[in-house]
Design goal:
The structure holds 3 protein chains of 3 kinds.
Chain A (H helix, E strand, L loop, with lengths): L2 H20 L8 H23 L15 H13 L2 H11 L6 H25 L8 H4 L8 H27 L3 H9 L1 H21 L17 H27 L6 H35 L3 H4 L2 H26 L3 H25 L13 H24 L8
Helix pairs in contact in A: 2-15, 3-5, 3-14, 3-15, 4-5, 4-9, 4-10, 5-7, 5-15, 7-8, 7-9, 9-10, 10-11, 10-14, 11-13, 13-14
Chain B lengths: L12 H23 L10
Chain C lengths: L2 H13 L7 H7 L5 E6 L8 H9 L26 E7 L2 E7 L8 H5 L5 E3 L5 E3 L9 H5 L6 E2 L8 E2 L5 H5 L5 H5 L5 E5 H14 L19 E4 L23 H24 L23
Parallel strand pairs in C: 1-9
Antiparallel strand pairs in C: 1-8, 2-3, 4-5, 6-7
Classes of the chains: A mainly alpha, B mainly alpha, C alpha+beta.
Chain lengths: 399, 45, 297
């Protein structure tokens, strides 16, 4: 058989295999489907109105509040929560901590899909999305812009995360040569991915640097980029604990008992990392609080809200992680992970929405349409995640 | 017109160094706490 | 002396008197200086001719200034109006203030824009280019004066803000609002000249004006300068914006980017080498290796 025909037959095999795999599997009437299908359909209808009549038709955005839930939650918060991928690939490939090998695939897949969907949700929020390629094709390059940087980093990171995940796809399609090649460039893409993550996690904080007069002083700082980066580490760790726990229940048939047990050990390791990062983050917050002499602001409604975030959802979960690690309590650790995640959501929303324009009489709150579209994005991501893990060797090598 | 008054932007440095010292004290304690062998058995989830 | 400069000098010397009231004459005297507009709020009578002239020039909503009662409440510029006039009751009676884009010397919106759709032109006006804009509204988030406005109810929205009549200036005309002003409350000219005139008015009438020119230092200096008889915080101006040009806030971060992009990968590679436990180089990609029969470790 000539080389040419070999490639042709291989291509046709892969094509037919993919067609076969595209068919849905399993029962349709699962609780998740019953909830998510109406949400996705409603979201699509809302998006029709959004593109037909403009952002004002479905959102509560205003001239004083140009960024709402889609930017503040989908993009700014979603990307922070996807930080687990760069933290874990750093640990496994750069630091060679083999302990976390068994969760790398699922975490990288999660990170990649999160960037696709939450970064993709930016397209709904852009007023002129048909120009979305402008920062890439040079019409024009806004070198002075933080957002320009984030645009590029999102795109490059998505490529890096895809390459990191691609050996799994090659394995799924039985493409041994491609798998070997992709495996060889994993370390390079991981290093690129970690560097890009460092920059765009902090870059999302840098977006708000020029909004200095609009953000309540308790949430504006010139160190916001550093704070965003540090908190993205424990956001990612908490997300792995949270998402891993759910995955191990929902997809337990895909996971070997051995890995079920190994996961508990992984959770303890992640909890230790999260406890230390959160403590450092908390002290950083305290340092800024002292340096900016903000004690006068504490005895106000905004001050109490700040304390809820920093004590209630940073310091307390940090101690819970430490306590849970010490006393080998998975339940305490999982509760701490959920609280830490809420703390991240709270922090990102405070910076981008709640404490933004805090002096204004008319406050922004998301419309139900904005909430449905956000839920739609989350549901669509879970759908694709489920599709992939049911087919590709994400949790185990057996198909 | 602008007025000229004395402003010390490093007024809080002393407090910041105090915070730093207490951070190190607590951090050493935290790391030691986390590296001790675990207490009790893993709960059965 | 090259030909171009020679022509310029001759024109400036010979033709200066001829076109003295023309914008081109200003350009010839200061070829590289920003233009700007000086607003003397003590001269403004609140006739809103500027609002009408602006709307007509840019083909926008023309307010009915005689009967719409818009002066009752302070307004903001909107996606329908580049400029508005507000009335304030102050310790020195009623004061009228025209507001619009300030055309900052170092514009936050222009540095925020990922596609340079917001552009600080060399002559000073900040203008918007719809072919480049992606509609991210980062300019609105960054602008300390909350100027750019977005058409939320259009499928193809524009970012709307005063252009300082950039097109008219190119034709050698003054901005429409300046031309329409019946009381010389608005004065168009070279920024440095405007600043001198403003200072001169304050020194010549020290009791009439507060001794501050709003826009001289605010946000690093703006193309529009304001004189007032009452403190500016009574006229709806933010006085807490500081003197720092807003792009400076992102300067350290953007400085760090190239440093991080070449430094961190090298650092990570070094860490990776240090973490080598001396085992065989065979490292499975992403978790599992198919040869191991499925289970990792």
């Amino acid at each position: 058989m000539s080389n040419h025909t070999a490639v042709a037959s291989e291509t046709s095999r892969v094509f037919h295999f993919i067609l076969e795999e595209l068919k849905p599997r399993g029962p349709w009437l699962t609780p998740f489907n019953v909830i998510s299908i109406p949400i996705i359909l409603t979201g699509l209808v809302i998006l029709y109105f959004r593109f037909r009549y403009g952002l004002g038709a479905v959102t509560n955005l205003s001239q004083g509040h140009p960024w709402g839930l889609w930017m503040g939650f989908d993009v700014v918060t979603g990307v922070a929560l996807a930080g687990g991928a760069y933290v874990i690939t750093f640990a496994v490939y750069v630091m060679r901590v083999d302990k976390y090998q068994s969760i790398v695939r699922a975490t990288v897949l999660n990170g990649f899909l999160a960037y696709c969907f939450y970064g993709g949700a930016l397209l709904f929020d852009l007023g002129r999305p048909w120009h979305a390629m402008n920062p890439y094709i040079g019409n024009n390059f806004g070198y002075a812009s933080v957002l320009f940087l984030i645009c590029w980093h999102f795109a490059l990171y998505m490529v890096a995360a895809f390459v990191e995940f691609s050996p799994v796809i090659a394995e799924w399609l039985n493409l041994e040569k491609a798998r070997r090649f992709l495996k060889n460039i994993t370390l390079a893409t991981v290093i690129l991915g970690v560097t890009l993550s460092l920059l765009h996690q902090s870059g999302l904080g840098a977006l708000f640097l020029m909004a200095e007069p609009k953000i309540h002083p308790l949430w504006w700082s010139q160190f916001t980029p550093v704070l965003f980066f540090v908190s993205s580490i424990y956001a990612g760790l908490s997300m792995i604990i949270f998402e891993g726990t759910i995955s191990h229940k929902a997809f337990s048939h895909l996971i070997a008992p051995k890995n079920h047990h190994a996961f508990d050990d992984i959770v303890f390791g992640l909890a230790k990392g999260a406890a230390i990062t959160m403590f450092v983050y908390y002290v950083f917050k305290a340092l800024l609080f002292i340096h900016e002499k903000q004690w006068d602001l504490i005895n106000t409604v905004w001050g109490y809200w700040y304390l809820v975030e920093v004590i209630g959802f940073v310091l307390i979960p940090a101690f819970m992680f430490a306590f849970g690690h010490r006393h080998r309590s998975l339940n305490i650790i999982k509760t701490a992970a959920i609280m830490a995640l809420l703390g991240i959501v709270l922090n990102r929303l405070n910076v981008s929405i709640i404490a933004y324009g805090w002096y204004e009489a008319v406050r922004y709150y998301p419309s139900w349409q904005e909430i449905i579209v956000t839920l739609m994005v989350i549901c669509a991501e879970i759908w694709l995640f489920r599709w992939v893990v049911n087919r590709m060797p994400v949790f185990s090598a057996s198909h | 017109m602008d007025s000229f008054t004395y402003v010390n932007i490093f007024e809080t440095k002393g407090l910041e160094y105090l915070l730093l010292l207490s951070f190190w004290a607590l951090f050493v304690y935290l790391v030691r706490y986390l590296s001790k062998p675990p207490k009790g058995r893993p709960d059965s989830r | 002396m090259d030909r171009r400069n020679f022509l310029k000098t001759t024109l400036a010397a010979g033709g200066g008197a001829l076109v003295s009231n023309d914008v081109r004459a200003l350009e010839l005297r200061h070829p590289e200086e920003f233009v700007g507009i000086l607003v003397d709020t003590t001269r403004c009578i609140g006739c809103r001719s500027c609002e009408v002239a602006c709307a007509e020039t840019h083909d926008m909503f023309v307010p009915d200034v005689l009967s719409d009662g818009a002066l009752a409440q302070p307004r903001k510029t909107s996606e329908r109006q580049y400029t508005i006039v507000n009335r304030f009751d102050t310790e020195k009676g009623e004061v009228f203030v025209k507001r619009q884009c300030m055309h900052c010397h170092q514009a936050a919106c222009a540095s925020a824009c990922p596609t340079e759709a917001m552009n600080k032109t060399l002559k000073g006006p900040v203008i918007w280019d719809g072919d480049k804009c992606i509609g991210c509204r980062f300019c609105m988030v960054s602008c300390p004066f909350d100027v750019p406005k977005f058409e939320y109810n259009e499928w193809n929205p524009k970012l709307v803000k005063c252009t300082m009549c950039f097109e008219r200036q190119a034709e050698g005309k003054k901005p429409a609002c300046v031309e329409a002003c019946p009381t010389d409350a608005l004065m168009f000219g070279i920024q440095v000249d405007n600043l001198e005139i403003a200072r001169h008015r304050i020194y010549a009438h020290p009791d009439k004006y507060v001794h501050q020119i709003y826009g001289e230092h605010e946000a690093g200096g703006t193309g529009w300068l304001y004189l007032s008889a009452v403190p500016f915080d009574q006229l709806g101006f933010r006085t807490d914006l500081g003197r720092t040009p807003y792009p400076e806030y992102t300067r350290e971060f953007l400085y760090a980017v190239p440093a991080i992009l070449f430094g961190v990968p090298a650092f990570l590679l070094a860490l990776n080498a240090l973490a080598d436990k001396g085992e065989p180089a065979e490292h499975s990609e992403l978790g599992f290796h198919p040869d191991e029969g499925g289970q990792q470790r």
